[in-house]
Structure formats: C-alpha cells, structure tokens
Write a structure and sequence with these properties.
about 220 residues; alpha/beta; four-stranded parallel β-sheet; three-stranded antiparallel β-sheet; globular
Length: about 220
C-alpha cells in the first residue's frame, strides 16, 4: 500500500506539469516568454488578456516550476525557468502536429498558406551567414524582444513598420526574416510583404529561441 501511494504521488507530480498547461493561453505565454522577460502587463498586452487573467495564468505556470519571476523596481518580471522549458514547448508542439490532424488546418487558418514561403533551417542560415555577407537579416519581432536577444547582424524591423521602411532594405539581395517560433505569424507576413514588393525573401524555420537552442550565437542590446 505504501509503495502504491508513493507511486501515485510520483506520477501525480509528473501530471502537474500537464495540468499547468490546461489552457492554450499558458502555452502561448511560454512561447512569448521564450523571447524575453515580460511584466504581467506585457504578457497581458501580448495575449490581449486582462492583467488579472494574465496574472492567474502566470501563477499556475510558476507553481509548476515552468516560469520564474524577479522584481525590478516596482515591476515583477517573468521569464522561463530554464532552456529546458523551450525544449519541452517545442517537443509539445511537434508531438501535437504529428498526432492531431487538425493542427495543420488550424495553423493554415492562422498563418495562411506556408507552402510557398520556403523556410531556411537554423543550420542553413548559420552556414549562409558564414559564407556570404550579402544577406539582409530582419528581426520582425517587437523591439523589446530584439533587445532581449537577437541573431548577430540582424536588423530590427517590427513587422508593423515593414511597409514604411522598405527603402532601408537593399534590393537585389537575399532577405531572411525571423520571429518568435514556428507558429509565429510575423515572419510569414513579412515574407509576403517583401515578395509582393519584388524582394527575394525567405523566413527562418522556427525562431530566435530555436536558433539559441541549437547553440548558435545570440547578441543582446537595443537596435541602433
């Protein structure tokens, strides 16, 4: 009986991680925090939630050990507890995409047709950056995420500003856009805008967290 109770407690503890992800908003919060620290207000804004609702989700994730917090002045900032949480998040997404047929349709409804966007893997991009100096690399996430971490040599052009900043992007050069991860719409939209305007544009498969998880270099600092 004692062994049975101990085993129940052990496996219930394993299940607590899954229980903490009982809302899609919490999975989305992990995806957001993989790109840098956020305050409760920042999380609320990023997910279009009330501050109270965002706080409740963060407390459940913290109780499960998936996120940590620290105080900075009067603000509480949240971050992922470790790089292993990013690995767990990507494994979860990959498993869902393999096991649930509806994932592809849901992703297409959100991201649009991805067939013509021809992504580069992190390894392919790293090799091309080493071999060629004529690639224009665009980080199309919000500037705060760029400041928290970006691929060396990338230029910060949030997707909402891309249309009015096209003159800054040289023509006749290959352009690669990246954002938060495989289900982030920013890079998809950026590539569509660029190709409609005659640029040779591709997107990075995955995003900055996947690049970092592959052991590739990451710089920090606000855009020039």
């Amino acid at each position: 009986m004692i062994k049975r109770e101990a085993k129940n407690a052990l496996f219930d503890a394993f299940a607590s991680i899954a229980k903490s992800l009982g809302s899609g908003r919490r999975v989305e919060i992990l995806d957001l925090l993989a790109n840098g620290e956020r305050s409760v207000e920042g999380v609320a804004e990023g997910l279009a939630l009330s501050v109270a609702n965002a706080s409740q989700h963060l407390q459940k994730l913290r109780a499960a050990g998936l996120v940590e917090s620290r105080r900075e002045g009067t603000s509480i900032l949240y971050r992922l507890a470790s790089g292993e949480v990013v690995d767990f998040l990507r494994d979860l997404m990959t498993l869902a995409a393999r096991q649930l047929p509806e994932i592809e349709d849901l992703a297409a409804a959100y991201l649009g047709d991805r067939g013509a966007l021809e992504p580069l893997t992190a390894e392919q991009l790293a090799r091309r950056l080493r071999e060629r100096k004529d690639i224009v690399l665009l980080d199309v996430r919000p500037e705060a995420e760029f400041a928290a971490g970006h691929i060396p040599g990338a230029v910060s052009v949030p997707v909402g500003e891309l249309g009015k900043r096209l003159k800054e992007i040289p023509r006749g050069r290959d352009v690669v856009a990246y954002c938060r991860g495989p289900y982030c719409a920013f890079a998809h939209e950026a590539v569509r805008i660029l190709t409609r305007r005659g640029y040779r544009a591709r997107r990075l498969e995955g995003g900055l967290p996947d690049w970092a998880a592959a052991g590739l270099p990451v710089d920090e600092g606000a855009p020039d």
